[in-house]
Specification:
Low-confidence stretches: 1-29, 123-133, 270-283
Radius of gyration: 20 Å
Number of helices: 15
Order of helices and strands: HHEHHEHHHEEHEEHHEHHEHHH
Number of strands: 8
Structural class: alpha/beta
Distance between the termini: 39 Å
Length: 370
């Protein structure tokens, strides 16, 4: 079986030969050094491991380049100014951005959490005898598993997500208000116009990961929340709009301010093991998520066409995970193998190298102090 260290990473020599467009300075700032770096993470259940292996490849390539330049290694929270995610992408955003984990630490914690949560089903069918949708897994187990991750990272599960301190990395997660069926953002920072809710770290993590039919809704301040997979499984546009609200609310001119914008997917949803009477309902839901995810990607790439041409925008998404369902923890070796194959493809290698070359020019505040 492949190990975590088998993930292919680009070398500095490969990175240094690739051209990267040089955007013009904006308002006296050099975009290549101080422009904003943004990360968007799709939902996908256990397939979120693929997201982490892709990020591991990027971060190892980046830190190899930094080491060669005499600079210290950095974690994602020190490179990205904003990380947004949906469902398990939201969980990963919290772990990397708010809890300030390295990618390796996140992979280890994510594996333990997914094993604990998905090892045992609560109900075989998602429809009860009353034909109402019921949770297939224990929500209390999810709560305890996430709480353990938060505690082991040195934080308190009940600590406010926005704690009054300036975060090293801004993080928000997408969830859906059950009563109004609208996408809501839960943040570890305050927008210029203010924020309505301030959940705990645990509540934010539960709200973004409470997938309908998998877990029961989460209640925060009298409102019930489920994950935002239907409507924002690919949160790239949500992340774009959030970044505009943070940095250019009046002008809306975000693109000239962005150094690098990365969107990472989890492949297509699988559903081969669902065989009960709710099969049609379940499959239609997953097909809708897949369709919306791709439609969002096309819309986002269309708006950021120049960024893609300038190698400032990147979309990474594995093919070949169609037969891996959201909760199939035992398929983690398949996820690892398929992602490794994807990372070894020529097109992906080139894109990862270009991404690394872009990110390595980012000037961290701590670089100036070291």
């Amino acid at each position: 079986m492949a190990t975590l260290h088998d993930v292919h990473t680009p070398t500095l020599s490969a990175c240094s030969t690739l051209p990267v467009s040089q955007p013009q300075p904006v308002d006296g700032r050099t975009i290549d050094n101080t422009g904003y770096c943004i990360l968007s993470l799709d939902g996908g259940g256990i397939r979120g491991l693929s997201t982490l292996y892709i990020l591991k490849s990027i971060m190892e390539g980046l830190n190899n380049a930094r080491k060669a330049a005499g600079l210290k290694s950095r974690k994602p929270c020190e490179i990205f100014d904003l990380i947004g995610g949906t469902s398990t992408g939201g969980l990963i955003a919290i772990m990397l951005g708010h809890l300030e984990m390295s990618v390796d630490e996140c992979i280890e914690a994510y594996n333990k959490m997914m094993k604990r949560v998905f090892e045992k089903k609560k109900n075989r069918s998602i429809m009860g005898i009353t034909l109402k949708v019921q949770a297939r897994f224990e929500s209390e187990v999810l709560k305890e598993a996430i709480s353990q991750v938060i505690r082991e990272a040195g934080a308190s599960p009940n600590e406010p997500f926005e704690n009054g301190r300036k975060p090293k990395c801004k993080v928000f997660v997408c969830t859906k208000t059950q009563e109004t069926n609208t996408i809501t953002h839960l943040r570890n920072y305050i927008l210029p116009r203010g924020s309505i809710r301030n959940p705990s770290i645990l509540e934010a993590a539960l709200a973004t990961s409470a997938a309908p039919t998998y877990f029961t809704p989460v209640e925060i301040s009298g409102s019930k929340f489920v994950d935002g997979a239907i409507g924002a499984n690919n949160p790239a546009v949500e992340v774009e709009e959030e970044a505009s609200d943070i940095w250019c609310e009046e002008s809306g001119q975000l693109q000239p301010l962005v150094k690098c914008f990365i969107s990472v997917g989890t492949g297509n949803p699988g559903y081969r093991h669902v065989s009960d009477r709710s099969f049609k309902y379940f499959v239609e839901t997953l097909q809708k998520v897949a369709s919306e995810t791709e439609a969002t990607n096309q819309r986002w790439q269309g708006r950021w066409r120049k960024g893609f041409n300038d190698y400032r925008c990147f979309r990474f998404n594995v093919n070949g995970l169609e037969n891996v369902g959201l909760a199939e923890y035992k398929e983690k070796a398949t996820i690892k193998g398929v992602t490794d194959t994807y990372l070894e493809e020529r097109h992906t290698l080139v894109q990862v190298r270009r991404c690394v070359e872009n990110l390595r020019m980012k000037e961290c505040t701590s670089d100036r102090a070291s």
